[in-house]
Design a protein that fits this description.
The protein is an alpha/beta fold and 260 residues long. It contains 13 helices and seven strands.
Length: 260
């Protein structure tokens, strides 16, 4: 890959580089190589990497990779601490500023599109006071009846928000419903944009679909061989279930259901 554009970016003030792409495309390995060349620090933009104990099934960077280059926003939350988009954006912007102050290049890497867009488009995300009872009720509905039921309700209350949220994404569906039910306003109408104060470049990685599917198939086999089922069993023994939104991540929910 030609990284001339990212190298040029690293010589400017208030600069940020992004590496994005689908699962299995090679973001982790490339980001570490680029970080070494450009004296960068990596900020994860993967919602699954936030949570401690979810390592094998998320293909989280290995300990030696985390040691090779400073990484941020990995293993910062327990599974019962459901981070919102607003929380991620606040922390990511703080870390961006700290890295820039140290004279290094922030390199944001990940496949969670909402995280990337929130940063580069300057989203102002609606805040709300915590309401554990409301969240638990919504989580219970999703666990018992499926995320599609909640998504249909969201489509009635806020069609615009529903059109932008995959019905399988339980966490985002619950978040939108929480805001609507608490505030009485549409989630989509509360999202505003403010100008960002940094320059950025995005490197989008791709592979032929057939090759990507083969990589993912091989990765799943390696995960199973390396203890993914045991990882999920251990999390469930600690009391984590599908009622905790992070456990609805692809792979984890399937293994959880296999223990039912």
């Amino acid at each position: 890959m030609n990284i001339a554009g990212l190298r040029m970016l690293s010589t400017t003030n208030h600069r940020v580089a992004f590496i994005v792409g689908p699962t299995g495309v090679g973001k982790t390995a490339l980001s570490i190589e680029i970080a070494k060349r450009l004296d960068a620090e990596i900020i994860s933009a993967d919602s699954r990497y936030l949570y401690k104990g979810m390592d094998i099934g998320t293909a989280k960077p290995l300990p030696q990779q985390l040691d090779a280059i400073p990484h941020h926003l990995i293993n910062v939350a327990e599974i019962n601490e459901n981070w919102s988009l607003a929380e991620y954006k606040e922390q990511a912007l703080f870390i961006l500023d700290e890295i820039i102050r140290r004279g290094k290049l922030p390199l944001v890497v990940g496949g969670t599109g909402q995280y990337i867009r929130a940063l580069i488009e300057g989203w102002t995300i609606p805040e709300k006071p915590a309401n554990p009872a409301m969240r638990k009720a919504l989580v219970d509905i999703a666990a018992q009846s499926g995320s599609e039921v909640l998504h249909k309700q969201l489509a009635i209350l806020d069609p615009e928000a529903a059109s932008k949220i995959d019905q399988r994404n339980v966490r985002r569906t619950i978040r939108a419903l929480e805001v609507i039910l608490y505030s009485g306003e549409r989630f989509s109408s509360q999202r505003r944009r403010v100008p960002i104060n940094f320059r950025y470049k995005i490197a989008g990685l791709t592979r032929p679909r057939k090759e990507l599917y083969q990589i993912i198939d091989n990765r799943i086999e390696n995960m199973i061989a390396n203890g993914f089922v045991e990882e999920v069993r251990g999390l469930m023994e600690r009391g984590y279930t599908l009622a905790h939104p992070p456990m609805s991540a692809i792979g984890y929910k399937d293994v959880c259901r296999g223990f039912d």
